[in-house]
Protein 1
Amino acid sequence: GAGVSQSPSNKVTEKGKDVELRCDPISGHTALYWYRQSLGQGLEFLIYFQGNSAPDKSGLPSDRFSAERTGGSVSTLTIQRTQQEDSAVYLCASSNRQVDTQYFGPGTRLTVL
Amino acid sequence: QQQVKQSPQSLIVQKGGISIINCAYENTAFDYFPWYQQFPGKGPALLIAIRPDVSEKKEGRFTISFNKSAKQFSLHIMDSQPGDSATYFCAASWTDKLIFGTGTRLQVFP
């Protein structure tokens, strides 16, 4: 079956603009995660959705970052007033239940000029 | 206490050799320890995982060794191949999140 998909694959934006990144998880997966991977760095947890529960937003670096998940499926990560330090690869992952194998999408490479 | 420390940052191994990557943690509440493999331009993919009730798990050429008392775990890649060249991340779970190490870039030369 289809894996996790993310769009766009690449996004170049100007400092101060807002961007939206999309994640389509594997069908039926109840858990969805967003991570940020800076060049040569590990994966930084951003936010976690599990079913209909309130999301765990503890990893969001500032109030410019927000995410929503509509209908328990597709998720959108929004970064407002982008800064150059927001440049990174944003990865989405989904899993069938809590603390199970996370399946990652290919990521969106965000470049803020 | 939520950190997972990974070493080395990079590793160069000759084809046929053994690659060893080490990770250490502090939080004794961690109960799931996966390793992920990431190729350039791709998302990470689960390679192998272990729970703390066993000391070793082997899948083909890949083995996790787990030392609960030392709070350390390691990935061993036997008979390393050029196709194993990738970045490897260890991770540990606490509640419902994975905490990732900083990654090891492995290069296997023919």
Protein 2
Amino acid sequence: DGGITQSPKYLFRKEGQNVTLSCEQNLNHDAMYWYRQDPGQGLRLIYYSQIVNDFQKGDIAEGYSVSREKKESFPLTVTSAQKNPTAFYLCASSIIFGTGSSYNEQFFGPGTRLTVL
Amino acid sequence: GENVEQHPSTLSVQEGDSAVIKCTYSDSASNYFPWYKQELGKGPQLIIDIRSNVGEKKDQRIAVTLNKTAKHFSLHITETQPEDSAVYFCAAEAGGSYIPTFGRGTSLIVHP
């Protein structure tokens, strides 16, 4: 079964703690993305990576960090520097190279809901 | 950068009615416009997309129109059904960037 998985589905953390959200895909996609979703705010890009060992900041990267050591994995760490971390986090992936197309669909995971207590 | 405005934020219709969601974008370099549907507790899923070289695309009960001059595009759903109830997102993307800018979403509620 091909797809993109995120774990855990629900996550609780205390203020001041770092927490890492997992994202794995077995679609052999080149690019991976992290979005934050808040009510009425749509999807805001946190970080993205188009190739292993390389990643770029999105619109709201402050207080977050990522790594892309393997093509199939793109974990997101929410650090204590993120002032308002309670949100729904979505990971996505897409093909970039080899399709001959400049536009490619994003495939989303089921999301992780993070609550800071 | 790109800015995508989406309206309305909430849309309530009776089953069988049509629903229209409208988006505008600011960057004339954008030439790919996907629409995603997000059901409760799930990630968004692409339902239809349109590229700037066409003005309209249809897939069964769903259609998307694009007016590049006015920089706006719309999603049309005909004969709505309760299972169409979801949050819909429009997005705009410049070809080759692979980075879409999303609208804020429209919560569509279809009453049986």
